[in-house]
Amino acid sequence: MQTPLTTTVPVLRLPRGPDGLSRGFAPDGRRAPLKPVVPEIPESKESRESQEQRARATLRERYLRSLLAMVGRQVSFTLHEGVHVTAHFGATDLDVANFYVSQLQTPIGVQAEALLRCSDIISYTFKP
Amino acid sequence: MAMRQTPLTCSGHTRPVVDLAFSGITPYGYFLISACKDGKPMLRQGDTGDWIGTFLGHKGAVWGATLNKDATKAATAAADFTAKVWDAVSGDELMTLAHKHIVKTVDFTQDSNYLLTGGQDKLLRIYDLNKPEADPKEISGHTSGIKKALWCSEDKQILSADDKTVRLWDHATMTEVKSLNFNMSVSSMEYIPEGEILVITYGRSIAFHSAVSLDPIKSFEAPATINSASLHPEKEFLVAGGEDFKLYKYDYNSGEELESYKGHFGPIHCVRFSPDGELYASGSEDGTLRLWQTVVGKTYGLWKCVLPEEDSGELAKPKISFPETAEEELEEIASENSDSIYSSTPEVKA
What we know:
The structure holds two protein chains of two kinds.
Chain A: E1 7-8, H1 44-70, E2 74-79, E3 84-92, E4 98-106, E5 109-117, E6 121-126
Antiparallel strand pairs in A: 2-3, 2-6, 3-4, 4-5
Chain B: E1 3-4, E2 8-10, E3 17-22, E4 31-36, E5 42-45, E6 51-54, E7 62-67, E8 73-78, E9 82-87, E10 93-98, E11 103-108, E12 114-119, E13 124-128, E14 137-139, E15 148-152, E16 157-161, E17 165-170, E18 175-181, E19 186-192, E20 197-202, E21 205-210, E22 216-221, E23 226-231, E24 237-242, E25 247-251, E26 257-261, E27 268-273, E28 279-284, E29 289-293, H1 326-337
């Protein structure tokens, strides 16, 4: 894979735009303390934990769905030592420790079927 | 290895963006307000460009918008013959100030107690925001519509620009102190309190004057008609944009053109540096705002520095300090676990 002469600065994500539903200014927004302070109810500590739990569950579900979306698609993997390979994604095991792929394009040829160890993968990307 | 600038496009407006302003640096970061011909000015988080809210209420194109220093209040000037003051935390309209013609410019004093307005009726108006029912003080003298009016010298003086003149007024006596005449239409004016510098653009020129005496300091010529320019807080750089859709970056001391950036699909109407100088925002006829890094490749806001030899081996830590929405909580948690970062192509819009 050729390295371009200049690379563009990577971004974490794009700026969020209007939600198209409301005028914004979320009531529990980042500057809530400037508004009249509502005394904190004792349950708030617990709800924070369950909020985090819910957030983690949502993230996990999103990740699993992303794996489902990948099935059959061409995925590019970035491995250690600057190695990049592409393959068709097949499946993952229960612990997401290995990826089963086919048509793995390696610098030394194409592997019809292969198991990629997830610990060897730094990142992967695909277009849905 | 040279890094190519990745501008961040903030979409949401449906018509040209004609004015933008940053707040000061607040405990919650800094904020950005954009004025748009669609009549719906928007508030955004300054370092990421994330939309926070839209100020709804104007019935015409919004020509000018500003935030007070601590970003608790916003003010807008519109073609519906009103200027409005808003609560920038809740988005609620606080005051509507009726004028006799299109209002083009608004500016808060440092203490947010007074609002200066100017527009097509050629009058400068000073409103006491603690007494909104009282009549404003009026300063007359301009012979054409006022395009920009700014407080200066610790709010003791007022700078105002119409089509061909820039005038300096004393606040206490409400009289004209000095004026500058131009052969070409003045397109923009910016005031830098530290150093009392006034940045004026007209034709292809970007001129710097003393805000106290209006004496010229220096000026640069750009390759195209410039609509707006902004000086970096540390006065190392200046950025300018105009009719050729490009942004130009100059070394302020030498006048050398350092960079030019393409990206907008229409003329650039306004450019402003952020209060910390780390980025600058441009608003265009194409309806978008774009955020540009001052130091390309530095980790800041949504931009992530990647060293050439590293292959994304480091954890991506999004710069999000205030999780309040579910989305942001998710991202904060995600950042603990994620190893991946991705590049976006420069032209992708949100």
